Amino acid sequence: MEPQHSKKLPTFPFLFPKAQSTVLPDPSLFFAPSLLSSPLPTNSFFQNFTLKAGDQPEYIHPYLIKSSLSSLSVSYPSRFHNPSFIYQVFNADLIISASNNTEPSSRKSHIISSYSDLSVTLDMPAANFRFFLVRGSPFLTCSIVNNTPVSISTIHAILSCDANNSLTKYTIKLNNNQTWFLYSSSPISLSQNGVSLLTSGGFTGIIRIAVLPDFDPQYQSILDRFSSCYPVSGDAVFTKPFCLEYKFQKKGWGDLLMLAHPLHLNMLSIDDSDVSVLEDFKYKSIDGDLVGVVGDSWVLKPHSVSVTWHSINGNREESYDEIISALSKDVKALNSTPITTNSSYFYGKLIARAARLALIAEEVSFPDVIPAIRKYLRETIEPWLDGTFNGNGFLYDGKWGGIVTKQGSLDSGADFGFGVYNDHHYHLGYFLYAIAVLVKIDPVWGRKYRPQAYSLMADFMNLGRRENSNYPRLRCFDLYKLHSWAGGLTEFADGRNQESTSEAVNAYYSAALMGLAYGDTHLVAIGSTLTAMEIQAAQTWWHIREEDTLYDNDFTRENRVVGVLWANKRDSGLWFAPPDWRECRLGIQLLPLSPISEVLFSEVGFVRQLVNWTLPALGREGVGEGWKGFVYSLEGIYDKESALQKIRNLNGYDDGNSLTNLLWWIHSRGKEEEEECSGGGKFCWFGHYCH
């Protein structure tokens, strides 16, 4: 599934014209010179380390990590919660620095010397430190050279600091009720100076620091047992469809202890992995309990998802007339209402909306309208691919490695921040959906524009790790959290964020459809696998069932969906709407409505809870008809007739939606729930024949 380099690749993949951006930050401030010739991550778990002063914290499970003035602060965060939001509180529980730091005020506090799917390595040249920050490690690991004196301080008071006989383990008790352990690869002599400071003589070797998450004695013995084996990096490898393998590179001796979040545990295939799960060894996290896993190779298998052009159960023929009547009007209106927006996001929604009409026409056996839709799609898509669109267009930024828009290259707020790498999978996902459908109905056009189509896809779905790639590896998708981040090159105290999971799902789904249209089985497999993981992550962290225990009770009681999910925060509000606009909160997790929505919202019990929670908000004055359409769509999953009447009475639709699409959705709802197939996947018929 990963790229095979034995085959000859095209020498010159298509690139859009070169951008002259005035808004992008300078990557050379924090990335090592050797990395600057390759495309760089823009939406990653360590992005704060690359922006402005590089001193905002990042959540490297289970710790919040902050780098400043050639020192590293580590926090085992407490959680603040109320009905509106949850966030983890950063306190500098321990601060590691060099006692003889030669440049404490140096602007360049750290250098990123390497990074991988699951790790980042921070070098602090002024302190002779190298930190291996590997996600899910219960230990913070630091390599120290040149016989450097080490200083460990805290914002708390140190109550005691006790060493073992060999001076290779210290137990540090703080007055905030925390106990930390410091392990060293060779003896280190720590002495307490004042209330909050420990200092050592010169030291060369490895130091590992871990908090004791529970006062059960077995926790300490587990940390002791695995203290000698440390990870230095970690890769995630797509080995076959619906399978992702973690491979951690380790040093030292013994077995490797890591931590898995709830979705890992849900997907972890014990039969295929040489790992053991320590179910009683847990760290607290905003993402749910992190559970110990022993082993340096994990195999994760999400539920399989069937990517389809059309609805899974199809429409009954008696519904065709109503759908065709709406379809004829919607297609006729395409020519009478030209696109006036030059926003890459809203433009993308409009062309994807038109593409939906072509697929619905196929599904209800009404091909008469398809030539008009094909003409419309060609006329609206080509200017963006040819560079002839008036007022905007795609450009290639060589500084970070990726596509930006003309507007976005001059204004960081234009196109929702597309020019600073915000929301790429959202915008480009809509373009890919429209392109995939056009390639399906016009293969000759598809062959002509294949290089441009693949360039749009590769911007956020490139798998390569090679220097001569034009795009970073999986720009938005987080291979530890197993979902995407929309936030790009903007510094945020709570790390990256994502609002709409459904638009993220749409991006990978659309890429898989493009693979179907081009007969590219590799693209179908990767797109489908990412779609499946994004769906399960949405169902784990964004969808909140009344009976769920993942989040704090007051937040769970008040919310059926998260508004914006941050690395370090859960917010009930949206970027564009307050928390009590529940119809927007539901809608932004559903749009665009398409066949993959059936899988994203396949849990009927939760859908009923979500709709019942949302319906009272529709009584508020000024609620948009477009948002009502999404609420009624979900209601149609369990009450088809009621929803159908409500949809017929709407007098407006979301700009990416249409009456045709709403009627198609409601009429394709089955009366019975689809039964699960083997392997846990829904709607995967072949599973019946794989026993």
Automatic annotation (TrEMBL):
EC top class named in words: hydrolase
InterPro entries: Endo-beta-glucanase, GH81_C, GH81_N
Example GO BP: cell wall organization
Domain of life according to the entry: Eukaryota
EC numbers for this chain: 3.2.1.39
Keyword terms of this UniProt record: Carbohydrate metabolism, Cell wall biogenesis/degradation, Glycosidase, Hydrolase, Polysaccharide degradation
Domain Glycosyl hydrolase family 81 C-terminal residue range list: 317-666
Catalytic activity: Hydrolysis of (1->3)-beta-D-glucosidic linkages in (1->3)-beta-D-glucans
Domain (Glycosyl hydrolase family 81 N-terminal) ranges: 37-308
Coiled-coil segments on the chain, per record: none
GO molecular function: endo-1,3(4)-beta-glucanase activity; glucan endo-1,3-beta-D-glucosidase activity
Cross-referenced Pfam families: Glyco_hydro81C (PF17652), Glyco_hydro_81 (PF03639)
Sequence similarity: Belongs to the glycosyl hydrolase 81 family.
PANTHER family: ENDO-1,3(4)-BETA-GLUCANASE 1 (PTHR31983), GLUCAN ENDO-1,3-BETA-D-GLUCOSIDASE 2 (PTHR31983:SF0)
Protein name: glucan endo-1,3-beta-D-glucosidase
Organism: Citrus sinensis
